Amino acid sequence: MNREDVQLGDVQETLLIPLYGRARDAKARKPILGDATSVELVAQIDYDFTKFTGPSLAGSVLRTAMFDAWVREFLDQHPAGTVIELGAGLNNRSSRLDNGTAHWFDLDLPDTMALRRKFFDDSERTTMIAGSVLDTDWFEQVAATGGPYFFVSEAVLLYLGEAEVRTVIEQIAAGFPGHRMSFDTGGRAMMNNQDRNAVFKALPARMTWICDDPHDLEAWGLRLLDSRTFATPQPGLADNWPWRYKYGMPIMARLVPPVIKSYKLNLFDLPG
Ligand SMILES: C[S@@+](CC[C@H](N)C(=O)[O-])C[C@H]1O[C@@H](n2cnc3c(N)ncnc32)[C@H](O)[C@@H]1O
């Protein structure tokens, strides 16, 4: 088998961490996501994934499961709605959650999209877009579906500067007022710990946007609907998680609060 070469920018290369996390999860005795596609992708990419070690691999799986839960909830309410994955990497949320009627857009930078296109195809309801979250030229294509819209951005805005994050949010809010958006935030404790994090020791990219409290983003016009940590997943979600996460995360949150509580997954209404 000819394996695909990886030619990615520093931040773009970070997509390989959650991909490997999902692949390892799929092979685990008790998988959380059970995403077999990720195992196939890892096998087809010529890259030393074994350099990624440590708790962030499992963390990326818990994170994806929690974002999946919000997307599922949105699709339960709006089965023909539109989900826009900002900074999709090689995440295949659309194949995990598709209900047969929703529209899906996967946006990422051109080099990431070139890699993604080697494994995924567009379909009648699934569209890949090469572009930046900082651009607005893709809005028209998305808006053509009629909505309602759910924007999900997982481990992407963390790599931007605060002014850039604000631009992204204000532009999307202006283009899609009153719709919904979810993304993660990292506080100072998490950001200051990156050089000690095993996966970041293997890569040059670093996260830059520090947000200690997602309530602060309400000053930008967002309305915070929900904010969770790995210790407080959506009700019932952790029922199929291995005990070390289901019970371990709440224990860790009590023993070493900054480690768990600094990273938050958030759900917002865009001003409308
Ligand atoms: C840590 S990866 C996360 C990938 C995916 N969300 C996941 O969880 O598997 C970060 C992703 O952000 C993308 N990214 C970084 N800056 C971006 C930008 N300005 N616009 C769109 N995507 C961006 C990278 O290409 C990469 O795919």
UniProtKB/TrEMBL annotation:
- Pfam families found in the cross-reference section: LCM
Q: Does the keyword Transmembrane helix apply?
A: no
- Keywords for this protein: Methyltransferase, Transferase
| GO BP field | methylation
Recorded GO MF terms: methyltransferase activity
Q: Which InterPro entries match?
A: Ppm1/Ppm2/Tcmp, SAM-dependent_MTases_sf, TcmP-like
Question: What is the name of this protein?
Answer: Class I SAM-dependent methyltransferase
